[in-house]
Amino acid sequence: MIWWTDLPSRARTERQAIAELAEEADWLQSVKWRLTEDLRFVADFDIVHLGASYPLCLTYPHFFPAVPPQVTPRDGTRISGHQYGAGGELCLEYRPDNWEPQFTGAMMIGSAYRLLSSESPAAGEVADVANAHRQTIAQEVRNTKLRLILDAALLDILIEQPLFLPQPFTLDEHWFAQHWLAHPRRLGPPDAPPLWAAASQLADPRTREGFAIRLPDKVDVPFEGNYAFLNTFLTALNFAPALERLKVSDAEMPLLLVHRGTARLYSLAQGTGKRDVYVYRTIVAPVNEQRLSAEHGGLSERSVAIVGCGSVGSKVAATLARAGVGTLVLVDGDLLLPGNLVRNELDWRAVGLNKPDALAARLRDINPSTKTIVRRLLLGGQESSASTDSALQRISQCDLIIDATADAQTFNLCGAVASAERKPLIWAEVFAGGIGGMIARSRPDLDPPPHAARRQILRWCEDNGIPWSGGDGEQYSLQIDAENPPLIADDADVSVIAAHAGRLAIDLLKGGATTFPNSAYAIGMARKWIFAAAFDTYPIDLVPEGQWGPDADENARDELGGLLREFFPKAEEAEDEG
C-alpha cells in the first residue's frame, strides 16, 4: 500500500501544514522532502533550541493516516529520555494508542519540539519530563532473553526476610522459545521443604544453588552485570558464604538481591576468577488472578475418564485440565504418528509415543495440579480380559466418562459401565468430511441410559429421512461425488466439536442447573447433509426409556441362593445337620 498515491490531496495538505509551521516557528528549520527506496514520504528538518541543533526526520508509514508518522534522529544518536534507544523513535504526545486520522505530521513536529525544549528548559539545565507512555510488562521485557518469574506472594516473602542474611537459594531454569526462564523453588538448605512453587515442576530443568540476600533500600545495585562490583559488594558486606562459594567452586552461582520492593537475579557464569555476570529481568505475576468462575473451584475434586486420546479426546482433555479438573484417566491403545498432527492437541515432540503418555505430559504442562492416570489399552480390541476389566474398573470410578472414539464397540463398553455404575456419559463424533458433528450426554435418571439414548438419536435421523453420517472414528473424509475431491475434516472442524463436548462436560461437572436444555445436538459446519448453513444446530429430544443400574435377574435372590448351593454343597449339608 502507498497511501499518498491513493490520497494525493492529503499528501499535499501534509506538506502545506509543515511549511506553514516553518514560517511561524523560528525553531523549525531546513525542511526538505524526499522518498525512500520503499516509497515512504519523509520530511527532514532541524529543531534549534538554546543554540543546539537536532537533525530529525519525519517518516510517514505505509498505513498513514491510520497510524502516526515516526520522528527519529537523522544521525542515529540518543537525544531524549523519551526515546526507543539510540537512533530510535521519539515517544511523543501522539502515539498509536491515542492517534486520530485527522492529526498531522506538523503536530508530531510540534510535539517533538515541546519534548526537547522541556528536557532542556535553560542553558545548562536538564529536567525530567513526565512520561505519559505506560508500557505493559510484555512491552518492557520483549527484548530480554533472561527472565525470572515469581508471583506477588513470593515477592512479599522475600521482602520480609532479615537484612544482610545470605540464605541458600534454589532455582529451576529451562530453555524455551529461545529464552531462559528461571523459577524460584526453595529458600533454605536443599533438604528444606519448598516455601513456594511458582510454576509446575519443569521437565529436565537446570537446577542451580546460590544465595538470596535482602538489602536496605539505600544500597545502590547497578542493573548491568558487573563482576568487580558484585565481588567488592559481597566483600564489603562480609557475605562469607557467597565469597567462599566463589573461591572453592567454579559452578554457576545465582544471586537473588532483594531491595527497593523488588528482586533481581544475577547469575555468575561458570569459571574461576573474573566471571561474566548475567542479569535477569524480573516478571512479577499477580496473586490469585481470577480467570475462572467460582463454580470452577469444585472441579479440582472431580475425576473424568477420557476414552480415546486422538483428535477430539486430546482437545477435550486439554480443556478440562485448563478448567481445573482434578483427575483425568486417559485410555487409548494407539501411537501418535506424524499424520495425526493435523488434528491433535499434541505436537512433533510426541510423535512415536503412546497417545495417553504423550497427552499426560502435555496436560502436566497445562496444569500441574491435574493428576493423570494412563491406561495404554485398546478398549474393545484384542487385549487380555484382565487388562480390559482393570481399565473398565478404573473408568467406572470416575465422576464422568467421555467416549471420544466414535467407535461403536467402544461406545458399547463405555455405555455398559456408565449404566451399571450409574455414571454420566458424554460422547462426541465428527462427521465425515467435517460437515458437522454430534455431541450427546446421558445422565442417570435424567436421560435414557446410553444405549437407549443412542438408539433414539439414530431413530431421530431415520424419522427425518436422514442417513447417519457419524460412527466411524477413522473416516475424516467424505467423497460427495466422483468428479470432486473429498471433503476432509481439519483441525478447525474437530476443534468445534471438541469445544462443545468440553463445554457440555464442564456444565455437568459443576453440578446444579444445566445450561443445556437438550442432551443431544447435531452441529453443522458446512451446507451438507441436514445442515442448511455453517453452525446450523439441531437439538435432539431424548425421552425416558429403560432403567439405569446393573442388569439383574427378576428373581435374583432365589437364583443367587441356588447358584451358591451348587458351588458350595457341603455348606448346605452342614447347615441341614446343624
- Average pLDDT confidence is 87
Q: What is the total tally of β strands?
A: 22
Report the principal-axis shape.
flat
For the biggest β-sheet, the strand order reads 11-10-9-8-6-7-5-12
Class inferred from helices and paired strands: alpha/beta
Helix content: 25-40%
N-end to C-end Cα span = 104 Å
Fourth-tier CATH superfamily name of the largest domain: NAD(P)-binding Rossmann-like Domain
Number of domain units: 3
Count, helices = 15
Strand content: 15-25%
- The poorly predicted ranges are 470-474
Radius of gyration: 34 Å
Q: What is the CATH third-level topology name of the largest domain?
A: Rossmann fold
- Assigned CATH class of the largest domain: Alpha Beta
Please outline the major beta sheet. Answer: 8 strands, mixed
CATH arch. level architecture of the largest domain: 3-Layer(aba) Sandwich
Helix-strand layout with pairing:
Layout: H1 3-6, H2 8-24, E1 28-35, E2 41-49, E3 52-59, E4 70-73, H3 105-119, H4 137-141, E5 146-151, H5 152-159, E6 167-176, E7 179-187, E8 206-214, H6 227-236, H7 240-248, E9 253-259, E10 262-268, E11 277-279, E12 281-285, E13 303-307, H8 311-323, E14 327-331, H9 355-366, E15 371-375, H10 385-396, E16 400-403, H11 408-421, E17 425-430, E18 436-442, H12 450-463, E19 477-478, E20 487-488, H13 491-510, E21 520-524, E22 537-540, H14 556-567, H15 569-577
Parallel strand pairs: 5-7, 5-12, 8-9, 13-14, 13-16, 14-15, 16-17
Antiparallel strand pairs: 1-2, 2-3, 3-4, 6-7, 6-8, 9-10, 10-11, 17-18, 18-21, 19-20, 21-22
Helix pairs in contact: 2-3, 8-9, 8-13, 10-11, 14-15
